[in-house]
Amino acid sequence: MQDAVAESIWREGLDLALPSLPGDCRAQVCVVGLGGSGLGALQQFRRAGLDCIGLDRGGIAAGAAGANGGFLLAGQAQFYPQAVARFGRERALGIYELTRRELARRYAEAPASCRRTGSLRIAADARELDDCARQIELMRRDGLPAESYDGAEGRGVLFGEDGCFDPARYWHEQAAALRRDGVALYGNCFVEEISESLVATRAGRVRADIVLVAVDGGLERLLPQCAGEVRSARLQMLATAADPALRLARPVYYRDGHDYWLQRADGRIALGGGRDIGGDAEWQADGVSTAVQAHLERLLRERLGSTAPVTHRWSAQVAFTRRGLPVFGAVAPGVYATGAYDGTGNVFGALCGRALAQLALGERTALGEWLA
């Protein structure tokens, strides 16, 4: 493992750094976290004409937003039958429809970064194949796109509206647009305190009428009041050099979503998962482990049949909640928080960020009602 780069392949060649906070500042809004949900919130606040500051401990997409699998998937972390059983048909279907619309918007607005390829859920055994059949049945009943698949990858479900993207590049472009619109973004901001109208960092204090925290992994450390509901874990990945012998047309979820992979347009493979293989060691951890990386490499060699050398190995922290829905809402007077997307924040997280900004502005949204 020592020969691989210990960094996300998506950040390669990008300057995601931001200037440091220049001492004490004042704004109408301060957003903490500059991943997909934080940038989504800032977009919503700017549309409302508010003066905004955004802070991050690293830079743009410094956490899971710039280090995930690159999947663009409709729905929630749970497969549709499980979401319906746990949250009810109306809420599960409503959230799925909102994410479908968000996917369509991204394909239209950022065709260079976001590709509609479809995605696959491939069954690892007969039990999972039966669950795939049940998923197709329920989704078709509710007018959602899903069809049976039997191809080179295996058997399962094809979701024709899903896709993939280059996450760090996409969020870099979104941040650049915000900065052109006058939003001040700062990095290397280690937050020491968040309270009503105040975000205190080691570099300075930001006073704001609205404070919005949009952090996935590590949310319970930033907001201790969320500790009983939220728990963070690392998701590990690897990437390879280009493999011209392999042609993977769509991103794949495998083994109930525990494992996942895609092939980028440049032929390189990004493959992740195995959190269940790592067990309790994956909670509150950083870096990579021998056990999970060995599992990922077996998938690469034996399941995918790739002989391409591994060039990158990395992890990113994401958070999970007991109730299976993200943190969303006011956590203190004038302080709002969203995060803990169970590993699927690329689409859902941005929607939560925008909806939470609307809530902070006194506006009601369907997503806000479903997450309350």
What's the short version?
By secondary structure, the chain is an alpha+beta fold. The chain is 31% helix and 28% strand.
What is the general shape? globular
Annotation field: number of helices: 10
Please mark out the parts with pLDDT under 50 across 5 or more consecutive residues, or reply none.
none
How would you classify the helix and strand content by structural class? Answer: alpha+beta
Query: What does the radius of gyration come to?
Result: 20 Å
> Average pLDDT across residues?
96
Strand and helix order: EHEEHHEEHEEEHEEEEHEEEEHHEEEHH
How many E-type strands? Answer: 19
Q: Which class of the largest domain in CATH terms?
A: Alpha Beta
CATH superfamily of the largest domain: FAD/NAD(P)-binding domain
CATH architecture tag of the largest domain: 3-Layer(bba) Sandwich
Main features:
372 residues; alpha+beta; FAD/NAD(P)-binding domain; D-Amino Acid Oxidase, Chain A, domain 2; 2 domains; 8-stranded mixed β-sheet; 10 helices; globular
Report what the structure shows.
- This protein is of the alpha+beta class and 372 residues long.
- It folds into two domains: 9-67 and 167-229 and 323-371, FAD/NAD(P)-binding domain, CATH 3.50.50.60; 116-164 and 232-321, D-Amino Acid Oxidase, subunit A, domain 2 (D-Amino Acid Oxidase, Chain A, domain 2).
- Helices cover 31% and strands 28% of the residues.
- The chain has helices at residues 36-47, 80-87, 89-109, 126-141, 167-180, 219-222, 275-278, 290-303, 345-360, 366-371, and strands at 25-32, 52-55, 71-72, 114-116, 119-122, 147-151, 154-159, 163-165, 184-186, 191-195, 198-201, 205-214, 230-240, 252-254, 259-263, 269-273, 310-321, 327-332, 335-339.
- α1 runs parallel beside α5 and α1 runs parallel beside α9 (345-360).
- The protein is globular, with a radius of gyration of 20 Å.
- The protein starts with 24 loop residues before the first strand and ends with a helix.
